Structure formats: structure tokens, C-alpha cells
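just leaving the lab so this will be short. what follows is a protein written twice so to speak, once as letters and once as C-alpha cells for the fold. can you read through it and tell me how you think this chain folds. thanks a lot i owe you, the record is right below.

___
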Amino acid sequence: MGYRVLHDGETEPPFSSDLNREKRNGTYVCAACKTTLFAAATKFDSGSGWPSFYAALPGVSKDEDNVVDKYVNMRAEVRCSSCGGHLVRPVQTCN
């Protein structure tokens, strides 16, 4: 499942990630290239079933070229800025 999420943009089932229960200090990195993406201090429980962060580090970029996500779903896909690995499709448009 991890490969399909990272490389094909699929979504893992909610509440299935071990990262939901991760509480240690530090940073979260891209599983593919190890680029630093999020500080652990910015993680919060959104109740969505997926790890949530209120701030991204420079290693994160928005992909607003996906027409369906941008205009139909009103959201931007979030990817690793170094390798393009899929990170998340937010429920709301990223700002």
C-alpha cells in the first residue's frame, strides 16, 4: 500500500497508519528521498484518521495542476518538493 500511496497518489484507509500514534519529537521525512517535510511539534489530531499537521516545512509543495482536485474537489494535492512523492490530498484547499 505504501508504494501506491507515495508513487501513484492513492489514499490509505483512515486510521490505518502507525503515524497516527507517533508521539516522539523530531521531524517527519519523505519515505522515498528523506526530505524533511513536517516538524513533529506541528502535528495534531484532526479526527480524520490521517496524520495532520498545521504547518509544512520547505520540503512540501502543492500540486495545483490536477484539474479534478483543483476545480471539482476544491483541494490541492500535497507532494514532496524533492522527489514528487504524494503526501496527502487535503480536505480543504491548501493556502
